[in-house]
Amino acid sequence: MAEAGKTTKRVSAVRRFAPLAVIAAGLAFAYAMGWHRYFSLTFLAESREMLLGFVEANYALSVAGFAVVYVLAVAFSVPAASILTIFGGFLFGWLVAGTVVAFAATAGATIVFLAARSAFGDFLRDKVGGVARRLADGFEKDAFSYLLVLRLAPVFPFFVVNIAPALFNVSLRTYVAATFLGILPGTFAYAYLGEGLDSVLVAAHEAGTEVSAGDLVTPQITLAFLALAAVAAIPPVLKRFRAAR
Predict the structure, then answer these.
(1) Structural domain spans, the chain
(2) Distances in whole angstroms, Cα of residue 95 to Cα of each of 87, 187, 190
């Protein structure tokens, strides 16, 4: 009986961690194959004519392929969300790219969330206490507002915010809604940057210099994201203030 119980626990642990293991293996495989090198503005500058020609000849296929690549990149936690969004804006225009990215990024993030919740959610909730427990309770009581602020503010990496809510009792519906709405401003901002990138890429390629996403993001855009996050934070702050009184 004892041996059967151990076997059952082992099988249960394998099932819990299998989705997260697949994601980790996929990320390791992508880096081992060197695919991450394609997620750069240097690659875009070198391949711009070929990519634009392919999109013009195969528009529907290109949009679908871009959506699939984006979902997989986010699901496997490849740190390339901003670069891919700029790629999309450059190839398809800000409106099409922003719309596709909003849905693709939400789908990929949801896959990571479900995998992390399966592996760690209940286990960590049972172990934490004190300040961590109070933080978890506060997050759970107003999960939508908390997650919306995290999505709007460009403070934490995208993949970190994908995983963190899985450690709390956040419903799938709340996670998807807050993620989709929270990433819209940044998504369309980066897509818009991509749409106006052609002259920058041509100049950089001719000069033999490299362009990074950080070179394109102005302080004004960063401040705008922070302002949006501050506005989104007002309701939960007021709620806690009233509760304290």
Answers:
(1) 2-244
(2) 13, 10, 11
